[in-house]
Structure formats: structure tokens, C-alpha cells
């Protein structure tokens, strides 16, 4: 039911999903299984792909890495007929009631767009532990890993201070690493820190010590950072070495909202895209899901958002039932008009995807 005629070199879809994380892939799964010709444009990478282990996803063992999790999802999508492409969307424009996409895989047109482009975590300067093997970004995903273990939090703002205090729910050995920056947290936060057993370390990190498998063992600091050596602190020459199992970097987030902004979608003050409960933005036909939207940055949450957006997409695209006004204008639905599922997806579903296509 595309409302814009594509150019000869344009691929035509009912749904185009931009982004290949858990939210975008789930939206594509629902849209495809509900009968709509769907494409996913995925540039690769993303927060989920960085995961060494998958946490808090029921039915998925923690031995599964982020890449393995995503690869399995892509295989599922392709098995149902989703057109999955490893490509980058460079621009989207409104064309009548549809959208025209410029991609590194060529131009395309779609009735509905789902943006699942997420955000990028702010990273401190090196030296740093390896991401996922000592450097983490999601407290709710990874705090369990550090029960009764020495932990650091890097950052100088209110968010870093609160994460340091939150980690006291899991361990009694928490350091807040300013790395040479002056604290920017509020006076109220400063008072809270004074009343919680968090050790604030002002000096910068000068080195990282890993075990033979690449997991963090300790950080080195300049100028004998901290008080007299005790507990997990030892002096080594002119440096202080503090042992850590891992920790969190809290330097803010940069939301990948350029496509949403270019289409005129409303944004929140923090840069997230404003959406309703089913991922609808302020632009008709444009949806946003996952880390690009307000809320918890969690895989199960993202998948739920993708599912709800997929259902909302289907309701806005499905042919039947016709309304009374449509039936009065067009007449009764004839047997040859059903089913409305995309022809290619129909062949995929009934096992005849390799049979010759029926003539229109």
C-alpha cells in the first residue's frame, strides 16, 4: 500500500528499519511476520554488539556474546523474509505519504520508518580497560558481576557520583575516579558523597594491568594516588596500584538523532526522540525505539518497544477489515483480493519461496 511511486532504481518496502540492535530487529521481526515487506539497514556495531556476555535476557545464557545474540536474530529475520542489509542510511526525506531513503546500498522508499539508531557512550581518554572485560557502561546489566568485588566509577558529574553510591548496594569497596578533572556534581551530591563510604581518587590513570585472558586486574595512578596503601592499594615505585575487578565509565551519551531531527521529529532536552507508548514520533509514519528513546537502556526493554512498534505498524498498514466508508466507495472485498500479505512473504511462509512468482 505504498503511497509514493518509487523511481526505477529504488527498492520499495512497507517498513524500513534503520538500526540493527535488539529494538530494531524485534520491530522488523513483528512487521515481517505480520505480512509487511520489511528491510533492515544496519551499519553494524552498537552497544549490544560490544557485549562480552548477555545479561538479564530470559532464555539466553550468559555465555552468549552480543555478536552471537545479534547474529541469531538476523538469521531468524532472514528465515521469515526480512531484507537485512549491512549498510548505512545517509539521509531520509518525506515524499508524499512515504519516505525516501539514501543508503550506501542504493536508494529505497518505504511507507513507514523505524529509527533504532541508539546512542554512543562518552568515553574517557586512554589508558582504559577493555570494554566488557573491566570497562562497563550499564549498571543494571553488570552490577551483579561485582558483588563483594573492588569496583571503580569514572566520571566527575552527578551521574558518576550516584552510580558510585549505588554500587554500595553490591560491594563495600567503591572508588570514584576523577582522573584529574574537577568535580562538577552539585553541592547536594557532594554532601551525599561525604556521608557514603566512597573513596574519591583525584589523580589520573596512567596504566592498566590485565590478566592473561584480558580481564582487568588493576589500574595504575600517577603520584601515589590516594591515602596510605591499604586493602586493594599498593605502592609501586612512584605510582599507586589499585586492584579492581571492573567498573563503569559515566561521561554522558550522544544520541544518534540526526535522521529524526532532519525529519522534524520532536526531541527531548537530553536528545532522545519523543515517542508515545508504541514508538510513534511526532511525525506521521515515523517510529523510534530502543536506546534512542527515553527510558531504561536494557535489551528486554528495547525488545518490548520493538514489539509494540511492530504491532502499531501493522495496525496502520493492514488492509483488512475495510471500513464502512471504504466498502461503500470500493465495494465488497472479493475472494481474489485476499490474503493481503506481501506475495514474497506469503511464498516464504508456505514453503514455496523458491517457486516462480505469480504474475500480477
TrEMBL record:
<dbReference type="InterPro" id="IPR050097">
    <property type="entry name" value="Ferredoxin-NADP_redctase_2"/>
</dbReference>
<keyword id="KW-0285">Flavoprotein</keyword>
<dbReference type="GO" id="GO:0016491">
    <property type="term" value="F:oxidoreductase activity"/>
</dbReference>
<feature type="region of interest" description="Disordered">
    <location>
        <begin position="329"/>
        <end position="360"/>
    </location>
</feature>
<dbReference type="InterPro" id="IPR023753">
    <property type="entry name" value="FAD/NAD-binding_dom"/>
</dbReference>
<protein>
    <submittedName>
        <fullName>Thioredoxin reductase</fullName>
    </submittedName>
</protein>
<dbReference type="InterPro" id="IPR036188">
    <property type="entry name" value="FAD/NAD-bd_sf"/>
</dbReference>
<dbReference type="Pfam" id="PF07992">
    <property type="entry name" value="Pyr_redox_2"/>
</dbReference>
<keyword id="KW-0560">Oxidoreductase</keyword>
<feature type="domain" description="FAD/NAD(P)-binding">
    <location>
        <begin position="14"/>
        <end position="306"/>
    </location>
</feature>
